[in-house]
Amino acid sequence: MKELIERALDGAQRGGAEYADVRVVRREDETLTVKNGALEAATSNDSAGFGVRVLVNGAWGFSASAVLEPAEADRVAAEAIEIARASGRAQRTPVELDDTPPATDTYRTPYDEDPFAVSLDEKIRILLEADAAMARVEGVAIREGTMVAGRERKTFASLTGAWIEQEITEAGGGIEATAVNEVEMQQRSYPNSFGGQSVTGGFESVRALDLAGHAQEAAELAVALLDAPQCPSGEMDLVLDSTQVALQIHESCGHPTELDRVFGTEASFAGTSFLTTDRLNQLRYGSELVNIDADATARGGLGSFGYDDEGVPAQRVPLISAGILVGYLTSRETAPRIGRRSMGSARGWSWNSLPLIRMTNINLRPGDAGSLEDLIADTREGIFMSINKSWSIDDRRLNFQFGDQAGWLIRNGRRTQLVRNPTYTGITPQFWGSCDAICGPDEWTLWGLPNCGKGEPVQTGHVGHGAAPARFRNVKVGVGRW
C-alpha cells in the first residue's frame, strides 16, 4: 500500500499538482433482518479501492480505482491531473486551501466487543427473541428486527506530508411493529425510526438496547394507535422526545449550516440554506437555551472519527451559542472564505467518492429541566410527540412539517389521551426561538443516523445527533389552515 500511495503522489506532483492527496479505503458491512419469525436477509459487503484528488492551477481533479496495484496509481494520478486541467477551463475562482498542518497519526474506534467477532447465531437469537415478544401481542401484522455492523479501514496521505491511518467500527440494531385494521396502519419503532440505534463502538451497544425487553411495549403501542383519536389541530405547547429533537436538529440545524449549501455549490436533497454568511454572529437562531455544537470527538457518535478525509483533526466547535449563529460546517476549501480554518467536516462515503461537507455529531446541549416526566409535569396544556414518522422541509431549510408515530395530550401536567398521526409545523428560527425548556444530562442521548443523503451521485453519510427532550411554546399542531 505504501508503494501505491507514494507512486500516486509522485505522479500527481510530476503532472503539475500544487496539492494532492490519496485515500485508500476498505469498507466492510453486515446487515441481518428478521421478519415475522424468520431470517429474511443476511448480507455482507466488502469494498476496497483508492482515490486520488489533485489541485492544478486552482481546480480540482479526482479519479479512483478498485485495482490496488502500484502501476494503477500512475494511471489514476494522471487521469486526476487531466480532469483538473479540464475543470480549470470552467473555473471562475481558483480554489485556496486553509493552512491546516499535515498530521501523522493513527486512530481506532474504542469498543469492548468486536461486532464482527459475535457469531451469526448469537445475533439472530437476539433478533428472534425480540420478534417472539412482539408476536405475543394480538393485532401486530408485521414484526421486523435489524442488526448492522460496519468497519472502515483507511489511510490518508498528502503531498504536504500527512499520513493518517484510521479504523472505525460501527454497530447497531432496532425493531419495529406494524399493526393494521380495515382502514389504518400504525407503526412503533424502538429505539427510534432511523433503522435502529447505531454507534461507533462495539456489540456491547447492541446488547444494551435490550431489544427483547422493549419489544412487547412497542407492539402494544402500535395496536393501541389503531383505535386512538386523531391528533387535534391548533396552537399548543409541544414536548418532543429526544429522537424527534435529534431529527429536528438534523434537518433544520445540521444541513443549513453546511457551508457548501450556503455558498450554493451544493443543492441536492432539499436545496441550499437560508444561513447566508452575513448572518454569522448576527442571526438569532433560537432562544438563549439553544446551544448546538458540531462534535466529532464524542465517544460513540456515528459522526465521530479521528480525522476527516482532508486530514483535519476531529474537533468540537459551536454552531449556535445562546441562540446566536456562530459557526458553520466547513472544509479546507470553504473555511478560508469566512476567514477560518476547517473544523474538519469533509468526508467521502467510499474510496470512489469526493469528500463533501458532512455533519459530524450535531448536538443540542442538555438543559436543566430535569427528566421528561418533570418537563411534562411543568406543562399545563399541550402535546407530547415521540419517534419520527415523516418529514418535509423547503429548499432553504426554513419551513418544515414533521409527523410522529405517537402523541399524548398533556393536561394539568399529566400525560393523558393517546392520539394517532400527530404532526407539527413551523419556521426554523421561530420554532427554535420558542424553545423554553430542555431536559437534563440524564435524558440526553447521542443518536446515530446512518442514512443521510447528499451529493450527485448521492453519497450516504453516517452522522450523529445528541439531544434531550425539549419543550416548544405555541406550535402549530395537527392538520389545519394556517
Question: What features would you describe in this structure?
Answer:
By secondary structure, the chain is an alpha+beta fold. The protein folds into 2 domains: 2-226, 2-Layer Sandwich (PmbA/TldD fold); 234-477, no CATH class. Helices cover 21% and strands 39% of the residues. It is built from 9 helices and 23 strands. The strands form 5 sheets. Strands 1, 2, 3, 4, 5, 6, 7 and 8 form an 8-stranded mixed sheet that branches. The protein has a 5-stranded mixed β-barrel with strand order 9-16-17-19-23. The longest helix has 19 residues, at 70-88. The protein is globular, with a radius of gyration of 24 Å.
Record the SSE blueprint.
Elements: H1 2-14, E1 19-35, E2 38-56, E3 59-65, H2 70-88, E4 104-108, H3 120-135, E5 140-158, E6 163-180, E7 185-190, E8 197-200, H4 204-209, H5 211-226, E9 234-240, H6 242-254, H7 259-263, E10 292-295, E11 316-321, E12 324-325, E13 346-347, E14 356-357, E15 362-364, H8 372-377, E16 381-393, E17 399-411, E18 414-419, E19 423-427, H9 428-433, E20 435-438, E21 445-454, E22 459-467, E23 470-477
Helix pairs in contact: 1-2, 3-5
Q: Which terms summarize this structure?
A:
482 residues; alpha+beta; PmbA/TldD fold; 2 domains; 8-stranded mixed β-sheet; 5-stranded mixed barrel; 23 strands
